[in-house]
Amino acid sequence: MKVILKKDIEKLGRMGEVKQVRDGYARNFLVPRGLAEEATEKVVKSWKAGEAKRAKRVAQENEALKALATRISAVTLSFSRPVSEDGAMYGSVAKSDIVKSLKGADIEVHKDQVRLPASIKAVGETEVEIALKPDITAKVKITVTAQNK
Fold first, then answer.
1. What is the pLDDT of residue 8?
2. Which of 81, 104, 93 is nearest to 127 (CA)?
3. Is there a shared CATH topology between the 2-49 domain and the 69-147 domain?
4. Relative to the CA of 104, which of 19, 93, 98, 136 has its CA 20 to 30 Å away?
5. Contact indicator for 129, 115 with CB cutoff of 8 Å
């Protein structure tokens, strides 16, 4: 089934692109969630007519996201976790901890935007990538310190 994407979808395409996808994926996932609609001639024609307006809106959104990325890059998050006598850390720093700390700094991100392959389980400094859009990312510095018992 051919669909036109209403939003950017990672690993599929960008808003406004016409893509060939499996029927079930379109009917059961993309269309009900408002991510795409079937690419009939009428729909494609209306998308082409509103392309300039959408491009302007997307440019404004990108500018706002770039400003947010600059704010995120300026932030350093600190966490304190208990550590055993031989240096092994009890617990870890997960995506949810990072999102909560950023929220405390007045920065709203979704946990799916935090690119952390595995929880941080070591004391020290780490940089974690925050993907605001596929082409707009920011790196936040995370410092994990040992907490004395």
1. 86
2. 93
3. no
4. 136
5. yes
Q: What is the mean pLDDT, run by run of 10 residues, along the chain of 149 residues?
A: 90 90 94 93 88 88 92 91 85 91 90 90 91 89 85
pLDDT of residue 14: 87
What pLDDT is attached to residue 89? Answer: 86
Architecture of domain 69-147: Roll (3.10)
Query: What integer pLDDT is reported at residue 149 of this predicted model?
Result: 59
Burial classification of residue 140, based on how many CB atoms lie within 10 Å of its CB (0-12 exposed, 13-18 middle, 19 or more buried): buried
Say how far apart CA 23 and CA 10 lie, in whole Å. 19
CB 64 within 8 A of CB 71: no
Write out the H or E segment, with its range, that includes residue 76: strand 76-82
Query: In angstroms, rounded to a whole number, what is the distance separating the alpha carbons of residues 104 and 113?
Result: 17
Chain Cα centroid distance, residue 52: 26
For residues 131 and 113, the answer to whether their CB atoms sit within 8 Å is yes
Q: Hey, is 4 helix, strand or coil?
A: strand
> Structurally, what CATH architecture does the domain formed by 2-49 represent?
3-Layer(aba) Sandwich (3.40)
Tell if the pTM clears 0.85, that is, is over it: no
The C-alpha atoms of residue 137 and residue 13 are separated, in whole angstroms, by 17
